[in-house]
Design brief:
The protein is of the alpha+beta class and 278 residues long. It contains 9 helices and 8 strands. Helices cover 36% and strands 14% of the residues.
Length: 278
């Protein structure tokens, strides 16, 4: 007779579920995610004794596993996913102030941007994918533990500029493009800052002359970062988004993308930063 532990079952690792859920008798079993398990023959009496002895320990570990959320078997989520798990992520991000739309269980652009902002605020790689590390911080938030929240809406135009810039991830790189269907690097920066009411010069070298010089160790989201690439001087520009990352229209990537400041190509060509919004 199967033993079913409602509520606990969904959080247990597969090996323990197999022990709890049903007696193995040489038949094909199917776990909660649809994977087939083959049990060749009956369990020997000695094995039954071992299971009885070790089961309390396994159950205790599983209960801790389930209660803490560590090792929770959520799948990796990215744009295009949908369902209750996506809805759960949206609700947590909404509580923290990152997701401002109505949670609908669909992992679209707005959810991806909210995830990126959450990752930036909490020192994670801002890839827009809810993987194990991002799940770990989300679980802490769901348990009421302290995590970094979004700044209040409208508190800083620099944060608003970053949010708008992230909304254009994947937009094609177009030489001399000023948006919104295509950008070059300086056209992208000028367009984004124009959206928050700040007029910037069109060219990267002119943008370099604007604002306040900022040391690399004092960068804040919204600062402009400059590089010497295809010609001497400030010939490439992006917007710093936090966690040592910047968003920019990249000719190499062929689109608006996020790049680590520590990437060797850009690290070797870094010229400096400017703060446009005080």
């Amino acid at each position: 007779m199967p033993i079913v532990l409602e509520g606990i079952y969904e959080n247990l690792p597969n090996c323990i579920v197999l022990i709890i859920y049903e007696k193995m008798e040489g038949k094909v079993r199917r776990d909660r995610r649809g994977f087939k398990w083959y049990c060749p023959g009956r369990i020997l009496p000695t094995s039954k004794i071992a299971i009885i002895l070790i089961f309390p320990v396994l159950l205790f570990v599983s209960l801790i596993w389930a209660a803490t959320g560590e090792g929770h078997p959520e799948r990796i989520l990215k744009r295009g996913a949908s369902g209750e798990t996506v809805l759960k992520v949206q609700e947590i991000l909404s509580t923290l102030g990152f997701f401002t739309a109505r949670p609908d269980g669909i992992y679209g652009q707005e959810t991806e941007i909210a995830v990126i902002q959450f990752q930036c605020a909490n020192g994670l790689t801002p890839d827009g994918v809810v993987g194990p590390e991002t799940w770990g911080i989300l679980h802490k938030a769901a348990r009421g533990e302290a995590v970094n929240r979004a700044l209040p809406a409208g508190a800083r135009r620099a944060e608003e500029a970053v949010s708008i810039a992230l909304a254009y991830l994947g937009t094609p790189y177009v030489w001399s493009g000023s948006g919104p269907s295509g950008f070059d690097c300086s056209g992208f920066v000028a367009y984004i800052y124009g959206k928050v009411g700040i007029e910037l010069p069109r060219m990267a070298d002119e943008q370099f002359a604007a604002g306040i010089p900022i040391a690399a160790g004092n960068l804040q989201p919204g600062d402009l970062v400059f590089f010497s690439t295809y010609e001497p001087g400030p010939s490439h520009v992006g917007i710093y988004i936090g966690n040592a990352m910047f968003v920019h229209a990249s000719s190499g990537a062929g689109k608006v993308t996020i790049t680590p400041m520590a990437k060797p190509y850009y690290q070797a060509r870094y010229l400096g930063a400017r703060r446009i919004i005080k």
